[in-house]
Amino acid sequence: MVKITIVGTGYVGLVTGACFAEVGHQVICVDNDQKKVAMLQAGGIPIYEPGLEEMVKKNVAAGRLRFTSSTPEGVQNSEVIFIAVPTPPQPDGSTDLSFVEKVAREVAGAMTEYKIVVDKSTVPVKTGEKVAETIKRYNKHNVEFDVASNPEFLREGCAVDDLMHPDRVVVGVSSERAVAKLKAIYEPFKAPIIVTDINSSELIKHACNSFLALKISYANLIATICEASGANVQDVVHGMGLDKRIGRAFLNAGLGYGGSCFPKDVSAFIHIADQLGVDFGLMKEVARINTSQIQRFLKKVRDTLWIVKDKQIGVLGLAFKPNTDDMRLAPSLDVIRPLLKEGAKIRAYDPKAMEKAREYLPDIEYAADPYAAAAGADALLVCTEWDEFKTLDLAKLKSVMGHPTVLDGRNIFDPKRMKELGFTYKSIGR
Ligand code: UDX
Question: Which of 161, 170, 318, 365 is most buried per CB count within 10 Å?
Fold first, then answer.
């Protein structure tokens, strides 16, 4: 058992805290948002994530997990402190590291004996060096410490599962003492543990997310070539994916990647490469393809409807991907906002994200189910591939629509069947 504090109870911090407690560690989760801490202390969960609520409840009841807004309390009662605070993008694409720096200062000021400070937030390479300098500067009691990097690879929507069953654990650290402690934390997860220097560990995270974004943009570009040539992107990526060197994952063409990670990490990686004197033209192109994917979809909508003004448009799916209520940089926003501006009337349905979506899209109607979103519509757009959309009663869907036109941004329906049913159906790269 290791005594652990995690500063920051966002997606990464909260899920990590719960999973560490689940395998038997003693965990304190710290957040400076008093309201959030009060909610967690009262048994509430601020995000929707399958399996998380049960896991938090179970471990709080077992006395292995608790919440506080005091960083010193956390630091004094643990051996290892994880930093899991936001690292948002700045307007120029670089990473705002002010939250990481602030936590490093607070931790340093509260340390009265040897501690290991681990950065879990996604940060540009060389951040660990800065964290170490900061802790050294604010180390009031002049105690020994080690700094480590331990990037997180969890996906929203299956975060608990990803954390409990990782492909690998990456630990960037130089001292043997810290390596042994971090291995003790991760040993129960029974995954390969890769130990590197801090810079390499930080780079692994950016390199992974950027590579996955690259795969998606590659598939989207192939989809465009498919449309221009009459080929079918799903057959093409299936044929590619069976090659073990390539793999099928992250080759789904669609509206492109969104969310709080890929867009930000791609920009940050380009920026840090620039700073290091490396022109990352490859990733600039990946980002450009991702943006153009939305423009191409909007063109399909306009080509189909001709005039968008006063048209009733139904939208299925708002979250940036299925199984989450997260609306941050959701492709649906970039689809809906221009159409609203052009005078369309939008009625949308999402199984989980409608409450959060209201903050981003206050001027659209929200429907109680997919059929209500489609009712009377001139066109229905699919923006997120929730499973429940794949099994809709298509005959019923057609009967409620004003005009049976479906523009599928996530390739969830079979083009042949849609045609047989009498829909005007357009998708991506097919
Ligand atoms: C990602 C990484 O997968 C995870 O390892 C990291 O820790 C955080 O960033 P996440 O943002 O939760 O996780 O979502 P992910 O499942 O990776 O999807 C990202 C975006 O790519 C979504 O908008 C999704 O719709 C899109 N996507 C994914 C595609 O367009 N096509 C694909 O084939 C796969």
Answer: 318
